[in-house]
Amino acid sequence: xxxxxxxxxxxxxxxxxxxxxxxxxxxxxxxxxxxxxxxxxxxxxxxxxxxxxxxxxxxxxxxxxxxxxxxxxxxxx
Amino acid sequence: xxxxxxxxxxxxxxxxxxxxxxxxxxxxxxxxxxxxxxxxxxxxxxxxxxxxxxxxxxxxxxxxxxxxxxxxxxxxxxxxxxxxxxxxxxxxxxxxxxxxxxxxxxxxxxxxxxxxxxxxxxxxxxxxxxxxxxxxxxxxxxxxxxxxxxxxxxxxxxxxxxxxxxxxxxxxxxxxxxxxxxxxxxxxx
Lengths: 77, 189
Description:
The complex is a heterodimer of chains A (77) and B (189). Chain A has 77 residues and is of the alpha+beta class. Chain A is 19% helix and 25% strand.
C-alpha cells in the first residue's frame, strides 16, 4: 500500500512511502503509522484519508494496491 | 445663460453598448484553475467577473500578514493535495452558485511561497443583489479554509517555521468531517 502524507505529517514521515502490512481500514492504518512514529499520534488522530481523490471513512475497505493520501486538518486561506 | 462648456455636444453621446455587453456574457465555460503557483492576478480575475445580470460583485482577498501569535512572519508557504483540492473547490463553487443563484463564482488559491502583503486566496462572487454575493463569498472562503486539502507553513523572522492554524472544528463537532459553520445561519440563503 502506498502512502502519501502532507504538511505537518512530513515532520514524522517521508512524503511518500510503502507499507507491506495487511491493512484493512483507516483505523488499522493509523495504528500502523503510530507504531512507526508514536509522535505522530496526536496529529494522525485528526487526519482525514483519501483514496482515488475522494475522502474515505473508517468503513472503507482498503486494498494492498491502494494509494492512501493522509490529509491533516486544512489550514488554507 | 450659455450652456456649460463641459457638456458634450448631443451628437457625441454614445448609445449604451448593449450588443457588446450581450456578446461578453461570461458562460462559466472558461474554468479558472483553483490552484496557482504564480501570483494571483486579482485585477484580471475581477475584470473577468462581470455579468449584465449582476448588480453586485464581491471580491475577497486573503493576504499574508506580517505577524502571527506575536511573532514576525517573513512569509507563508502553501502546500496542497492538488487533485482533491481542485475537485473540492469546484464542488464548493458549484454548490454556492446553486444556493445563491450566482452569476459568477470564482476562487483561486496560491501554492508555494507567498510574501507578506501578497494574496494567498481570492474569491469573487457576482449576483443580482449584494446580500447574496456577500453571503456566498463568505460561504465559499469558509469552506475552502476548513475543507480543501491546502496547508500553510508560517516562516518566522527568527528562522523557525510552523505548519499551523489548522481547522479544529472536530474538537466541537466530534467528527473530522464536520465543521462548526455547517449550521451557521450566515451560510444559508
